Amino acid sequence: MYKLYCRIYQGVMKIGMYLLPWSMPEVIEGEGSIKKLPKLIKEKGFKKVLIVTDKTLVSLHLLNSLFESLKNVGIAYVVFDGVDPNPTDLNVEEGVKIYKDSSCDAMIAFGGGSPMDCAKGIGARIARPKKSIAKLQGLFKVLKRIPTIFTVPTTAGTGSETTIAAVITEAKTHHKASINDLSLMPKYAVLDPELTLGLPPKTTATTGMDALAHAVEAYTNNTYNSKLEKDLSKKATKLIYDNLLKVYENPKDIEGRQNLQRAAFYAGRAFTRGSVGYVHAIGHTLGGLYGTPHGLAMSILLPHVMRAFGEKAYDRLSELCDVCGITPKGNTKKAKAEAFIEWIEDLKVKMGIPLYPEYKEEDIDQIVEWAYKEGNPLYPTPVTWTREDFKKFILSLR
Ligand SMILES: NC(=O)c1ccc[n+]([C@@H]2O[C@H](COP(=O)([O-])OP(=O)(O)OC[C@H]3O[C@@H](n4cnc5c(N)ncnc54)[C@H](O)[C@@H]3O)[C@@H](O)[C@H]2O)c1
Ligand SMILES: [Fe+2]
Known about the structure:
Layout: H1 2-19, E1 26-29, H2 37-43, E2 48-52, H3 55-59, H4 64-73, E3 76-80, H5 89-101, E4 106-111, H6 113-127, H7 133-136, E5 138-139, E6 149-153, E7 165-169, E8 176-180, E9 188-191, H8 201-220, H9 227-249, H10 254-274, H11 278-290, H12 294-309, H13 314-324, H14 333-350, H15 364-375, H16 387-396
Parallel strand pairs: 1-9, 2-3, 2-4, 4-6, 5-8, 6-9
Antiparallel strand pairs: 7-8
Bound molecules: nicotinamide-adenine-dinucleotide (NAD) and fe (ii) ion.
Nicotinamide-adenine-dinucleotide is lined by residues 54, 56-57, 60, 85-86, 111-114, 117, 154-155, 157-160, 163, 165-167, 195-196, 198-199, 203, 207, 210, 287, 294-295.
């Protein structure tokens, strides 16, 4: 009965998805493209921007050329570099205060998913000053224009530069959840592969696996996708298949870096309508409870969840096997799906990613509860899991 309720909910959502005005950011891409951003900001009439970033990126001097070109065109800026990995509501509030105190009129979100999501959270709180982050989490609770955000992703990655989501952790409870609202879709994205050249191999690996998780979850999901999202998922999967290990082994491969940035962008756009699934539902709980980096949680969980779906995911996984050109051990859908999962597992081993997640025994019920609530009824996964299914799955991860 419960599973039927989930399917009906998802059927109604599917109709809603066709009625929504989906958009995509305007993209500036290519080596050194960050230098073009200040001119664009000036053309759009903005005078003072808040740059939302983190301390690591500032200490790596990754923003220097941006600072210089902003000065050259006469755009004033203030830097907020207090974003934590897995950003919190406290980070957001700090950013809101600086934005208001400094009378900024737009934002540049410079960094991985954490600074981009924090900037979106700041925007949401500026648009809705009376609603806390906890009240804004969920579906379509902002419903108001937020200040313009120019996104500059430095991981490849979350795809936050082209999603309607901002994932924020409540500092008090460690509950990590998403604000999803069309107003959070960024208007502009700069995909400059030079900015990702210094990513440590481990981060390259795990953030690339996050993009893969977006593509695979969106593709294996049942209902919300249109043809565009399915095509983007396939394109992203193939780009990751061709480039992730190559770039992990040769971090200065700029063409490979650019391909990964495109993959992250495509996968982001695919899942923002097609939705993620239980890999994310469980992964978010690990990020909230233990600070597990998001990409690491995704890399660990992705093959386990896909295998646990069993035959219901064979069709779609076998198609992805064909898209990548992986040679299966037989010609059945089952064999192809298994070959695709084995490729992910092999990639994990080659990139030094652990097989299983770390979690505390006493937290299992909390993990189950949060994952179940995040996943159901919203995520149109190939199989709907009950609380017992989630628990059985989590206990199998050892
Ligand atoms: N909004 C969305 O649609 C969406 C989608 C997926 C994930 N997320 C969220 O995004 C967050 C994770 O983002 P992330 O995986 O990009 O990691 P991150 O932004 O937390 O960055 C991870 C680390 O890498 C460093 N780093 C980033 N770019 C670098 C570079 N070019 N060189 C060297 N170091 C660099 C950062 O300083 C940080 O220490 C999580 O909170 C996750 O839940 C959001
Ligand atoms: Fe993700």
